Amino acid sequence: MTPCDLNAQDAELAELRASVRCFLTDDREQHGWVPAVDAWLAGWDEEFSQRLGAAGFTGVTIPQQYGGRGLSHLHRYVVTEELLAAGAPVAAHWIADRQVAPALITYGTEDQRARLLPRIAAGSFYSAIGMSEHGAGSDLAAVKTKATRTDGGWLLSGTKVWTSGAHHAHQVVVLARTEPADPKRRHAGFSQFLVSCDRPGVLIEPIILMSGAHHFNEVTFDQVFVADADVLGDIGNGWHQVTAELSFERSGPERILSTAPLLLAVVRALQNGGVSDDRTLSDVGDLLAHLISLRQLSFSVARTLNDGRDASNRAALVKDLGTQFEAESVRVAAQLLEGQCTPPDIDTMLRTAWLHKPMFTLRGGTNEVLRGLVARGMGLR
Q: Residue ranges of the Acyl-CoA dehydrogenase/oxidase C-terminal domain (predicted)?
């Protein structure tokens, strides 16, 4: 069977799904991690990532010659769904596996692939993405970080914000201008660089959430030398590369399942408590119907990416609709729990969900900007 023959209910994918569930059940019993909301951002656990890698569940799409399994994006989709539904602590390897590995496979040099892909497949390499800036959040064409040619490489200067996990990461993949801005060609003149976090001139400062949690960072590059060997792809091709990369970031199950552990726990608690009034059943049914529809759309994007076709418009749509659902699901969960005696683990997840709720529609590009992208892609603007 070829990857193109697979669908969401295929027996091959079902077998993979069952093996991931077995791993998660055993690993949780042995190591005691607690399911969490938004674990793909907040659940940084390097030992878990390495155990996951040893079990063959990171680097699923990485070719076997680089230590991966050489499977399709649909296989990775199934693994991702199970990890998110379980609320597993996946943040450490998440960005490297989701975005950096596909970029290296498509645009990287053989040296870059041989150096980084085996570590990503092993769950032992952690990367951040340096895109957003002050004044250039969702509008990446306004990026001002620049790289200037020098002997043997480039000098990188500028500041990135909302850089998830940079304080733990080995590297940041930085989008920078390598040509002066041209108002008539706003998307031209960008390139990508693989920048080690321990390079001289790299300063990483925390951005602390209201809860006191530290997931985001401001990263400043002060004349940081980046060798030619650490240019990702072709100079000047950065916009095309980032657009392809964002399709992976925006379309995955994490755009609809960040609150899944909470929702599953709430439904179980209502079931165990014998709550089955019409309003409750209606609310749960609405959540489920909405989730099923979004999953169909998200999976169709995974199939498109698997076929090597452009999915940027539909990926933006998944991100918009999916994160709206995530935000709304927090309100519905709280409403369903009104008057109920809930276990401490559900209370903890609900508090976290309320705190993270404003971020759902912002990260990965604000929904308002993405709607403009979708409209242009449909020929409406």
A: 280-378
All structural domains of the chain with their residue ranges:
3-125, 129-237, 252-377
35 vs 260: CA distance, rounded Å:
10
* CATH fold for the domain made of 129-237: Butyryl-CoA Dehydrogenase, subunit A; domain 2 (2.40.110)
Type and span of the H or E element at 150: strand 146-150
- The rounded distance, in Å, linking the Cα atoms of 312 and 287 is 26
Answer for the pair 251, 314: CB distance below 8 angstroms, yes or no: yes
Catalytic residues: 249
3-state secondary structure of 21: helix
pTM of the full structure = 0.89
If one counts every other C-beta atom within 10 angstroms of the C-beta of residue 196, the result is: 13
Query: What type of residue sits at position 213?
Result: A
Classify domain 252-377 by CATH number. 1.20.140.10
Q: What is the pLDDT of residues 105-152, one digit of tens each?
A: 999 999 999 999 999 999 999 999 999 999 876 677 889 999 999 999
